[in-house]
Amino acid sequence: SALTQPPSASGSPGQSVTISCTGTSSDVGGYNSVSWYQQHPGKAPKLIIYEVNKRPSGVPDRFSGSKSGNTASLTVSGLQAEDEADYYCGSYAGSNNLGVFGGGTKLTVL
Amino acid sequence: QVQLVESGGGLVEPGGSLRLSCVASGFTFSDYYMYWIRQAPGKGLEWVSYISSNGGDTNSADSVKGRFTISRDNAKNSLFLQMNSLRAEDTAVYYCARRESSATPGFWGQGTLVTVSS
Fold this sequence. Notes:
The complex is a heterodimer. Chain A is 0% helix and 42% strand. Chain A has strands spanning 8-11, 17-22, 34-39, 46-49, 63-68, 71-76, 85-91, 100-101, 105-109. In chain A, strands 1, 3, 4, 7, 8 and 9 form a 6-stranded mixed beta sheet that branches. In chain A, strands 2-6-5 form a 3-stranded antiparallel beta sheet, with no helix packed on it. In chain A, a hairpin with a 6-residue loop joins strand 3 (34-39) and strand 4. Chain B is mostly beta strands. Chain B has strands spanning 3-7, 10-12, 18-25, 34-39, 45-51, 58-60, 68-73, 78-83, 92-101, 104-108, 112-116. In chain B, strands 2, 4, 5, 6, 9, 10 and 11 form a 7-stranded mixed beta sheet that branches. The N and C termini of chain B lie far apart (40 Å). The chains are: A mainly beta, B mainly beta. Chain A binds chain B through residues 2, 31, 33, 35, 37, 44-47, 50-51, 56, 88, 90-93, 96-104, and chain B through 35, 44-50, 59-61, 95, 100-111.
């Protein structure tokens, strides 16, 4: 089953916003393999967080990830206009499993 | 730099077939698991298939099992997705992606649009 994300989130420039991603003990809660993706309209998704809280090279440290139990979170600090995008979480779900994605959250910068 | 370039998408009638290709450059293709992931218009991301670095291990989503086949040619730095018995619900942008870690696509191609319609 898909991970659960809020459909929308918003914040003003300079503020912080947190997006949640809720799964089960078979995915989010069972492994430290939660990832987050940013997708601008008409573009391919871009990995911004992997293994719960690691950032790929080039991703600003304004983006951070965490996990507690079956819920993972992405926090975007110091919101900027270019952060307005769709955000998806993903998780490993065990061997021979492809993994699972969340339904996506549209982040609006007010 | 790392590049993944998909091709092969287009308009096909229900029940038809298409073969998607993804050519990789800028990294040692044969070292990486590869993925196909799709996104229906206005919808979220959906796993399609994965293939191990040597092609010996593959898996596909239940929604495409028995209809789609993932393969690779490491000598040509290429990933493929053979799609048969296509349905309207297979309409989507199909992305190829390179594995970063478990179930984590770290680098994505630009995608190729598949439209299944009569």
